[in-house]
Design goal:
By secondary structure, the protein is an alpha/beta fold. It is built from 13 helices and ten strands. The protein has helices at residues 10-16, 25-30, 57-61, 70-82, 95-107, 123-140, 161-166, 201-219, 245-256, 278-281, 308-311, 329-344, 347-368; strands at residues 36-40, 43-46, 51-53, 114-120, 148-152, 183-186, 224-229, 259-263, 287-290, 302-307. β5 (148-152), α7 (161-166) and β6 form a beta-alpha-beta unit. The longest helix has 22 residues, at 347-368. The chain is globular. It binds 4'-deoxy-4'-aminopyridoxal-5'-phosphate (PMP).
Amino acid sequence: MAVSDPPADARHDDASYFWHGMGSPAEGRAKPAKEIASGDGIYVTDGAGRRLLDATSGGLANVTLGYSADAIKRAIAAQLETLPYFSSFRGTTNRPAEELSRRLIEDWFAPDGMRRVFLSSGGSDAVETALRLARQYWKIQGARDRYKFIALRNGYHGSHFGGASLNSKANIRRQYEPLLQGCFHIPTPCIYRNPFDERDPIRLGALCARMLEEEIVFQGPDTVAAFIAEPVTGAGGLVVPPPNFWPSVRAVCDKYGVLLIADEVLSGFGRTGRWFAVDHDGVTPDLMTMAKALTGGYAPGGAVIVSDRVAHHFDDAVLSCGLTSYAHPLVCAAIVAAIETYRDDGLVERAATLGQRLRSRLTALALAHPHIADVRGLGLL
Ligand code: PMP
């Protein structure tokens, strides 16, 4: 067969050439991956022509607007005609990136005190950039020893080396060790399973915040750059922390000058019934990472939003990080259209209402069924 011939069997390509994330080739040969051929509304159609209701938001919780969000498609197509790409490193810029950054901070919903936006090509890039910004923040101030990061034991922060060093699960860390130096973990305030066997949410929230304080003191406060956590953990088991946890964490970070990074890659943009999960706690982080629902899955994009408190130290500092596809015009156009859709269609409020209904039904099921031990979630997450 000539190299350019069409494949006799797409499954052969899949098992032989295409490398799946979080899966092995042997697994793919034993059980061929299901091809998703097309999507419309909340449905997808597989390679065999079966129409399926997509209750997974594209498999990775990012297709929050379904597959027929015409406004986003039109925005991408229009931008494609005008300017598909040009770099936004120092000296050049593009309108969609500028407009998106301004509207994120001024017009929309970023918590008060947020000031600057760094656009990335996804969640892992956003986390990586947030970690770099945290370290550089301290370097700018001459605190060269402040390089350590503390995270939750149930956290997930992506696939790059920085995020992976802060991840919880051993199976996604061990093959790549040694990872980034100076990363430490504290227990997650999960009522269902916690190392203290504590069943009282408020006591558990206080206990875990105290663990953060103890870890900071143990490491030496002048060595800790930032605490990073998801306001509701995603991949680590959807832990919604007790209401006192984040406010207490904010207080501990303030006491020791440690930066607080909220990783909202999964919990951001309405899914919890508020624009961001930190909005439930009334806490303003120093840096926030976001991706997934930011683009509704229509383009690969993410962002770090940085508070004024941090950003103003960078006025004369060169940000020595950048990505070829960051601030990509097509992605930025998609994000503007996605956020307008959430806002104009009232989808954040809808997630809160539907989330309550889902929760009461699931709780009723759990009470009736001995095999269901716990129901966790916030809004439609
Ligand atoms: N942080 C969190 C909280 C996530 O859920 C994810 C993705 N599951 C990431 C970071 C990494 O994002 P991405 O896969 O877009 O790189």
